[in-house]
């Protein structure tokens, strides 16, 4: 578990799945903006939020539930995906439930994931891809020290049209030099 000021990143519990499925997967409008696959109706028993045996770092993914530190209520889901041990890189995925949006939790989540990726996994680079009109995620990435690296033109099929994606990256040395939202060096306790 990784403790922040207003949230924790912890292992996914079976009891998290119905909440995350209802608020993040069954929100079709939101889901088609964040997932590279088409939305199809799924029962909670086949939710993409279920962590199955083998869904771990050896499979190139590390999955967390974002939770309230006082109540343990799930606030969202986040993961490192495409973990590449040879090139020491990974990508970040993040989704907050509607009740958790607009509170600055994405930036704090990115800070904790950066700590995990750089200090625990020994990665060299973390990347984020998001739609160019996803202003909250763009603000969170910049606040967490990520650099906007470019635009991938018309790369995402979203709700009937092609959309541009913005790419962001953070290197381990940048993070260690203090690119965290609180200004603390990368070695700060988590």
Please give a structural write-up.
This protein is of the alpha+beta class and 190 residues long. The chain has one domain (2-176): Gcn5-related N-acetyltransferase (GNAT) (Aminopeptidase). It has helices spanning 16-25, 28-34, 105-120, 135-143, 172-176; strands spanning 2-3, 8-10, 61-67, 74-84, 89-96, 125-131, 147-158, 161-171. An eight-stranded mixed beta sheet has the order 1-2-3-4-5-6-8-7, with helices on both faces.
Describe the secondary-structure layout.
Elements: E1 2-3, E2 8-10, H1 16-25, H2 28-34, E3 61-67, E4 74-84, E5 89-96, H3 105-120, E6 125-131, H4 135-143, E7 147-158, E8 161-171, H5 172-176
Parallel strand pairs: 5-6
Antiparallel strand pairs: 1-2, 2-3, 3-4, 4-5, 6-8, 7-8
Core attributes:
190 residues; alpha+beta; Aminopeptidase; eight-stranded mixed β-sheet; 32% strand; globular
Q: What's the overall geometry?
A: globular
Question: Count the strands?
Answer: 8
Distance separating the two termini: 9 Å
Mean pLDDT across residues:
90
How many whole angstroms does the radius of gyration measure? 16 Å
Strand content: 25-35%
| Total domain units | 1
Number of helices: 5
User: What is the fourth-level CATH superfamily?
Assistant: Gcn5-related N-acetyltransferase (GNAT)
What structural class do you assign from the helix and strand content?
alpha+beta
The CATH C-level class name: Alpha Beta
**What strand line-up does the widest sheet have?**
1-2-3-4-5-6-8-7
Helix content: 10-25%
Q: Assembly state here?
A: single chain
Give the H and E element order: EEHHEEEHEHEEH
Q: How would a crystallographer describe the biggest sheet?
A: 8 strands, mixed
């Amino acid at each position: 578990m990784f403790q922040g000021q207003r949230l924790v990143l912890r292992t996914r519990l079976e009891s998290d799945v119905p909440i995350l499925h209802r608020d993040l997967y069954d929100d079709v409008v939101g889901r088609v903006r964040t997932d590279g696959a088409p939305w199809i109706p799924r029962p909670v028993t086949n939710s993409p939020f279920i962590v199955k045996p083998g869904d771990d770092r050896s499979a190139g993914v590390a999955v967390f539930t974002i939770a309230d530190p006082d109540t343990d209520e799930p606030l969202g889901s986040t993961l490192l995906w495409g973990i590449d041990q040879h090139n020491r890189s990974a990508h970040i995925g993040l989704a907050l439930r509607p009740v958790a949006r607009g509170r600055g939790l994405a930036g704090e989540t990115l800070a904790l994931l950066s700590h995990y990726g750089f200090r625990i996994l020994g990665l060299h680079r973390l990347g984020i891809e998001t739609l160019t009109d996803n202003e909250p995620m763009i603000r969170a990435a910049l606040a967490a020290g990520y650099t906007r690296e470019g635009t991938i033109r018309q790369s995402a099929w979203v709700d009937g049209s092609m959309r541009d994606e913005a790419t962001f990256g953070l290197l381990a040395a940048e993070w260690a030099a203090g690119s965290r939202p609180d200004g603390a060096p990368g070695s700060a306790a988590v």
